[in-house]
Amino acid sequence: VFECSCTFPPVIPGFHLSGTVTEPASQSEPETTYKVAISFDRCKITSVTCGCGNKDIFYCAHVVALSLYRIRKPDSVKLRLPISETLFQMNRDQLQKFVQYLITAHHTEVLPTAQKLADEILSSNSEINQVHGAPDPTAGASIDDENCWHLDEEQVREQVKQFLSQGGYYGTGKQLNSMFAKVREMLRMRDSNGARMLTLITEQFMADPRLSLWRQQGTGMTDKCRQLWDELGALWVCIVLNPHCKSEEKACWLRQLKKWGDMDVCPLEDGNYGSELPNITNALPQSSNLSQDSLARPRRTVFTRAMEACDLHWQDSHLQRIISSDFYMSPAYQREGESLLFNSQGLPLWLDHVPTACARVDALRSHGYPREALRLAVAIINTLRLQQQRQLDIYKHQKKELLQRGVTTTTNLEGWVGHPLDPIGCLFGTLTEACRLEDDTSMDTGDSGEPKPPVYHHVPVWGCQDSGESYLALALEVALMGMGQQRVMPEGLYAQDKVCRNEEQIIARLQELELDEVLVQTLRKQSILLLEGGPFSGLGEVIHRESVPMHTFAKYLFSALLPHDTDLAYKLALRAMRLPVLESTAPSGDVSHPHHGISIVPSRYPRWFTLGHLESQQCELASTMLTAAKGDMLRLRTVLEAIQKNIHSSSLIFKLAQDAFKIATPADSPPDITLLNVALELGLQVMRMTLSTLNWRRREMVRWLVTCATEVGLRALVSILQSWYTLFTPTEATSIVAATVMSHNTILRLSLDYPQREELASCARTLALQCAMKDPQNCALSALTLCEKDHIAFETAYQIVIDAASTGMTYSQLFTIARYMEHRGYPLRAFKLASLAMTHLNLAYNQDTHPAINDVLWACALSHSLGKNELAAIIPLVVKSVHCATVLSDILRRCTMTAPGLAGIPGRRNSGKLMSTDKAPLRQLLDATISAYINTTHSRLTHISPRHYGEFIEFLSKARETFLLAQDGHIQFAQFIDNLKQIYKGKKKLMMLVRERFG
């Protein structure tokens, strides 16, 4: 609901709009009315006031409502002359009446001001009387005045401060990015507030308390934060490159940038404080020159590029002609000559350093000169093409020598992908923007809620004779050139991370292009140039050892080219599979970067922080090729060879093997045998790679390999069983491989006939015996189990155990096998192994909870059940090995309860008589038990504390039971007690307890 009055002058420069805005009542709030006043100047709001008092960077709802009302209903808003015009028409009486009424209406607010002004007007030498005329807020500015939007500086500061204080919480980055976008929008509208707003933002960024904290701790700032700083730096470059800024303005910015850059806390261009120090490389013997290097290098902050850009100007006449005309060509007579201003077709070139040239394009585009930006972008691309052609010609002459040396230097000292100024992204964006189809639905989101990708069409390059040239094709071409540029991996985690991120951003934008015939031609042409390229191309035949890998880029090229030129697609992807930094040593002769030679560090490369990510990208590329090559024997072979040659990480090869297996065995159709074989071969490679190194996924890998071999068939299984020693440890071969192969499930899965089953079983038994010989400790039991059904093999396995028992086996392994033998119905063999186990055992007096006690009791029970002879044979072994009184008395008690020989072995006569403790072999056991009780008692008494007295008396009671089994046991026990009283008479309380119980 509006009641508005509006006044503005007939001259267009500016006007004033005022009105009241009523906000309807809600459930919680009554109806409220606000007075709103807005000043305009050349279509911009220059100041606002509103009764609501809301403070924000953005206008309050009431200001927006009044503005929209004026735009939508211009006829309903009363138009008035400026107030000065109205006053001019009044006579003296009317003027007096007007002033008095005005003061009366607002006397509380206006009276002091009116009094002061009256005094000044009546004083002849007052300042007010020195100036001709008087101000009129409704008349607007003069046509020559600067014009800019109303900017509430305090609010900008507050908001940025608030967003920064919220740290990395979700949404704050978005908010700050939208403020940066706001700055760009201001620049595009040529609003002088743009630079002011960026200054305010920067001041708050520099005042962020976290900066000094990060610096002190030497920790890096978060990635999100780093990206915001990058954008800030790039925006300053844009501001100082404004083609129409005055030199004093530029000088003022330079002073400001220098002041920020000199502050200790100012973030550095290539990353954080801590991680970029030369300490990582200091550990390397040959890096003394590097640390000198780092110290000598000038400190580059996020503002350094903007400061450097202050030296650039737009006065160059060639540059002026490029950006001001679509038809700027070289004069015909100059074309034959080698002119640096034009190419052979007569089109203009711009030979600036590429990122700098692109920064100019970005500045033109950002400051609202899109057409000029396009013209300069085209000149840059013509230059890049010419350079590419020249480098190709030079390479053709040196090719033979370079290939022989197998090494190259990189010609590009600065990579364009991951560069702080994003030159490739800038050119691509400038060119595609000119090709965008602006339809009404471009802002709509698809079903997923994501914005729809933009729709592009071909727009011919203005003023270009070659009608085939379109801005869209140029955009694709320059993106391919930039991504394919050979460049050395930059230093530091942040810079390396940025390379990956920027690459992914460019590829995401490339994927939005629908490849028609024109674009496919561009793609093919550029791909061939990159393949043939020398040192300028990352896909050339020879690359520098520390070159940024091309896997991610090649994966895009492969998928894009595959439907149109399969051979080229594979050629590119296979070439890109390499990762030279992981080859064992740097080739000699590579002197271009002496301090990059990391070959002296065993196994890992401390400078390559993103190596893990790069290796997984290499794996992705291989996986994409494997999927595409399904069913094509020859292609699969080549891809397999590339994987085996270039991928050095076992877990990634395993992942590829699993991928290939999945693709080869779809649920709804028969398996693809060629791809299955590739999966198996990769699996075998993983087995060989991880056989001697520890790998926590090894068990999973072994199980998977057996599954894969089973899927391939009988021959594959036979083959892995026969060559087990190159693939598995003996334990894996018996307990996982052979056991799985012999399982019922495998037999069913392969639906084998009898001869085939026998062949498999025979291979498994041979393996089992070989493993038992190699590692009897861990494989003997598995070998016996696997050989159960074959008498000769079983006997051989048993003999291996017996031979190893005296040297290589522990008592617990022998007891386990002995129990297995008893369980299989071989009690005498079990007895033999149990006897061997006893010889390895030693139980001290205090080990009454030792895990082997159960085995000892079982062995004695087994001997007792076999008969008197066996019991007589085991008891001396027990006496020798066991010194624990309670265990010995337990064995003694069990042996005296029943007669030996109740196992009922055929041909044996069992006497059925109980054995006497006075005669051998039990006499020996009884003596040993009594002696163990005596020794244990003395051992316990040396360190006994009063709280254990009760427990000790119980122990003596148990001892008395054993003493009494001997004929003169009660005499022996009485003597024993007397001895104790004599020796330990100092322990009065304990001896009193002994007397009470035993007299």
From TrEMBL:
- Which organism encodes this protein? Lepisosteus oculatus (Spotted gar)
Entry keywords, A to Z = Metal-binding, Zinc, Zinc-finger
Q: Which domain of life is it from?
A: Eukaryota
Q: Where is the SWIM-type domain?
A: 34-71
Q: Which GO terms describe its cellular component?
A: Cul2-RING ubiquitin ligase complex
Protein name, per record: Zinc finger, SWIM-type containing 5
What Gene Ontology molecular-function terms does this entry list? zinc ion binding
